[in-house]
Amino acid sequence: MSDTRGFLILYVAYIVGVLIGVEGLGVNWGTIASHKLDGKIVVQMLKDNGIKKVKLFDSDESSLKALGGSGIEVMVAIPNGQIEKMNSYDHAKDWVKSTIMDHGYNGGANITYVAVGNEPFLEAYNNTYLNTTFPALKNIQTALNEVGLGDTVKATIPFNADVYYSPPFNPVPSAGRFRPDVINQITQIIKFLNQNKSPFIVNSYPFLSLYYGSAKSQFPLDYAFFDGSKDPVVDKGVVYNNAFDASYDTCVAAIQAVGYGNMTVVVGEIGWPTDGDEYANVEFASRFYKGLLKNIAKGTAKRPGYIEVYLFGLLDEDAKNVAPGNFERHWGIFTYDGRVKFEMDLSGSNKSLVPAQGVIYQPKKWCQLNPKAKDLSKVQDYMKTACEAADCTSLGYGCSCNGLDEKGNISYAFNAYFQVNNQKESSCDFGGLGTITTQNISQGNCNFTIQLVAPSGQPPVVSLAWSSMVALPVLTLIALLLDLLDGLCFL
Asked: Per-residue confidence of the chain (491 residues) as pLDDT tens digits?
């Protein structure tokens, strides 16, 4: 009888989750792009798809104005570089006034959360923000409370999943603990969040566990998805068949261990990229999201019921730093211009995604390698410069444009530079090797982009005199060395 009752409780929780559908679902709206999609178009796309929550990575005025009057719940953010400033209460009060009060008026943006930093305790940051994050959090929430917004706007901190782990001698979710170097600060933060009824936010990336772990054969591919695993983790009779459930419950266990087992845990970022790596493709992304959306409706062993998540991300961003990997520019569930990449049901009612409407593109012109070009001795230098200024990440091994021949690769790089510079004629010169065409030179799954019309006054990304061109200095990109192999099964 008790088993039947338990099953019915879980079943009801699942049905409620499905009915809630997109109500508890949010997306991350990043804007690190050479040509940003108009904010009003983005907001309408959110509304068309029934998305009622959005998470920003700053407090950009144009984004907040676009969101004004939409009713969409907004999480604004204080970037890591501003955390130390917020240790001054006067600065915190000024920020609350200029951001929350000036934009959150009746009919303005519906701001509900303030994210203080983004993954400030990431192990790769070497505790740079360890002693300044909590004071900033307190000042922002206190300032919100002071102006009477403390009940409707909550300050919190999105943490990376590397702040918690399971020890090697007991690698199961129930053994979850916070890292020794951050546990004191996190315990204080959790106590403060609990006092102010704010959630604990964690970013979870099964893709990154696969990306970093697969090279050492320490992370099974099927464990990143939700359709069963040959190597499940068994924890006191509970079987974990996927990385998300294990990571989430490891986080819950870590919070329980410091005395706050009932705290709400929101997933601030989770997603799967569609290009830039052999594991980053539309097929895997579709498989991941299909499983994720069903999974969050039922919850985990420690937290049955609907889990609030913010998908990462809304749109591709062609100017993101690629130090972690070329996939960084391809996290969007929509392309840079708001086109649908794959079918995904956000509502639980078999409704297809709705693309962006009213997008304005540059003219139908492409830049390609001149078929008459003979001397290609300098073409590698030109390609290098083009790809330092524009996005060529789709050309990598296992990526969508990996199948191009040598001339195709050259044309792709030339066109990327041409488009990012707003189709300026001189940006397709390349010492006479480039030529402009009105014929679409896309091949198969490899799309030769036409960029969006740039906002008025936006300058070209880079302008070079090709006759006297020298290669741009190569920027040294230091890869983020995330310690994802500690308790890897749970990240």
From this structure: 444 444 444 444 444 444 444 457 999 999 999 999 999 999 999 999 999 999 999 999 999 999 999 999 999 999 999 999 999 999 999 999 999 999 988 889 999 999 999 999 999 999 999 999 999 999 999 999 999 999 999 999 999 999 999 999 999 999 999 999 999 999 999 999 999 999 999 999 999 999 998 665 679 999 999 999 998 999 999 999 999 999 999 999 999 999 999 999 999 999 999 999 999 999 999 999 999 999 999 999 999 999 999 999 999 999 999 999 999 999 999 999 999 999 998 877 788 999 999 999 999 999 999 999 999 999 999 999 999 999 999 999 999 999 999 999 999 999 999 999 999 999 999 999 999 999 999 999 999 999 999 766 555 444 333 332 323 332 333 233 333 333 433 34
d(CA 6, CA 12): 10
Whether 317 sits among the annotated catalytic residues: the reply is no
Among candidate residues 379, 398, 392, the one with its CA nearest the CA of residue 448:
392
Q: Which residues contact 290 (CB under 8 A, 6 or more apart)?
A: 226, 344
Q: What span, in angstroms and rounded, lies between the C-alpha atoms of 19 and 13? A: 10
Look up 269 and say whether it is catalytic: yes
pTM score of the predicted model: 0.89
Q: Active site residue: 61, 73, 123, 269, which one?
A: 269
Question: What distance in Å separates the CA atoms of residue 391 and residue 34, rounded to the nearest whole number?
Answer: 9
Buried/exposed code over 5-26 (b: 16+ C-beta within 10 A; e: otherwise): eeeeeeeebbeebbebbbebbb
Q: Which two tokens stand for residue 315?
A: 């749109």
User: Distance between CA 151 and CA 449 in Å, rounded?
Assistant: 46
State both tokens at 479.
Answer: 């890869």
260 vs 186: CA distance, rounded Å:
12
Annotated catalytic residue, options 61, 84, 119, 278 = 119
Orientation of helix 183-195 relative to helix 133-146, angle to 10° = 10
Total count of residues recorded for the chain: 491
Distance between CA atoms of residues 181 and 150, nearest Å: 30
- Residue 436's SS3 state is strand
